[in-house]
Each structure stands twice: as C-alpha cells, then as structure tokens.
Amino acid sequence: SFEYADGQIYHLSASSWTLRRYDVSSDAWSASLATFPSTTYGIQDLQRVDGLLYAVSGLADAHVYDPVTQTIDVEWLAPAQVMSYDANDGLAYVWSGVGGGGSTFGRCDLANQSFTERSPPPSAIYGHAWAYIP
Questions:
Q1: CA dist list (Å): 4 to 23, 74, 103, 119
Q2: Which domains does the chain carry?
C-alpha cells in the first residue's frame, strides 16, 4: 500500500510488514522505519490522519505509526474485513465488505480507539469506493 504523507511516499510491505519512506527529491528509499505486527497481514489501506499513519489490515486490526517518534502505537479492532478507511472531521470512517451478512459502516474515534456502528450502506460494496469532498 502506498500513500503520501508529509510530502513523502510511505510503503508498507504486505509480506514483511516493514514500513519504508520514499523521498521524491532524492529518488531514494529509507531503511526500514518500523515493523508492524504480523497481524497486519492482508493490508488494505495505509492512511495519514492527524499527522499519524494508520495501517488497516484485512484481519480488522488498526496499527498507528508516528513518523516523528518512529514508533507503532496501540492497535484496536474495527469491523471485520475492513475494506476502506477515510478521515472526516477528525474522525476515521471505516467500512467492511462483510460482516453480519452485509456491509458494516461505522466511525472510529482515534483518540479513544473505539468503534461505533452507524447506518450501513444500502448494499455490500467492495473495493475502495469512499471519497470525502470538503
């Protein structure tokens, strides 16, 4: 998974779980910045929220990486099989393609690492289908 953050590109390997940063100006990859727990196997998304990088795996784990301290913070469970992750109003909205017979949609409060289920989409949606336009 690739995402821009702080003018850089971050890559999280789905095989070795290592996080590296690519510097566009020097055309160079960093050494491994951190190694995520192996439970992040099946990574679906890597996003920047509030200056932090959140890695969400297909196993419903969320792991937080702080680029300043280069440490991985607490993990918490989101709905099963998270398929997409987006930020809106300081909160993260996640949805899954499975769970309870259909899509699950809800809000993760990043400060409290809690999940609140909200009204689900009309039907199961697969792939990255969410967009936020301010």
A1: 11, 22, 28, 30
A2: 2-117 (2.120.10.80)
